Amino acid sequence: FFVSFYFLLMDGKKFVEYTFQLLPIHALHERQITKRFSNLCYAWIVVSFLLAFIQGTFATIGFAIIGVPSPFIWGIVSMVASFIPFVGAAMIWASIGIIYLILGYFGQGIFILIWGALLISSSDNLLRPFLLKEGVKIHPFILFIAVFGGFFAFKIPGLIIGPLIMVFISTLLYIYQLEFGDELSRIHDGDHHD
Asked: Which has the closest alpha carbon to 129: 97, 162, 153?
């Protein structure tokens, strides 16, 4: 990952320019594709940090309620763990809940397991599509399908691949509309003659 990331930072622009030279599309459309993918990447990073903060906050509140020692520190640990694909912050709150159950603190253990499932981890699943919508201008339901469809099709890499495919398809449809919008309007208005 880090080697790939390094070379993408060093030579990513050249790679994109070379790819666009091979594609039979207008320079205006190249800029549209680049802009939309840049917006998605930027939005994904910003949303990921925002959701990490939200999950860390919910975790800190939950840990404080049940009396976990140093709830703020465990909230920060949960925030960092939220960046780990698939397991995320659940790795922390579920472990704490299980430990409390094993130690015989059933009320606290059950509370943090329910709190974690309903508030901490669900906040990512429910809020990510709505927050990403602002960055990529795609309906949140379509992004929701892209995130989960990508995960089921490609597993963990699909969390990125799914939205990328969706942005690419929406960009192609946008370019199609730019190119053939007038003709489509004439067809829909009934003015098209064979």
From this structure: 162
Inter-helix orientation angle 90-102/27-66, to 10°: 20
CA distance 101 to 98: 5
Q: Which amino acid is at 43?
A: A
Q: How many CB atoms lie within 10 A of CB 64?
A: 14
Contact by Cβ (8 Å): 86, 143? no
CA atoms within 13 A on the CB side of 45: 5
What count of Cα atoms within 13 Å lies in the side-chain half-sphere of residue 123?
A: 22
Burial of 88 (0-12, 13-18, 19+ CB in 10 A): buried
The answer to whether the CB of 136 falls within 8 A of the CB of 43 is yes
Give 144's Cβ-side CA count (13 Å radius): 8
Rounded Cα gap, residues 13 and 153, in angstroms: 29
pTM over 0.85: no
Q: Using an 8 Å Cβ cutoff, are 157 and 172 in contact?
A: no
- Tens digit of pLDDT for each residue in 94-150? 999 999 999 999 999 999 999 998 988 888 777 877 777 666 666 767 777 877 787
Do the beta carbons of residue 83 and residue 119 sit within 8 Å?
no
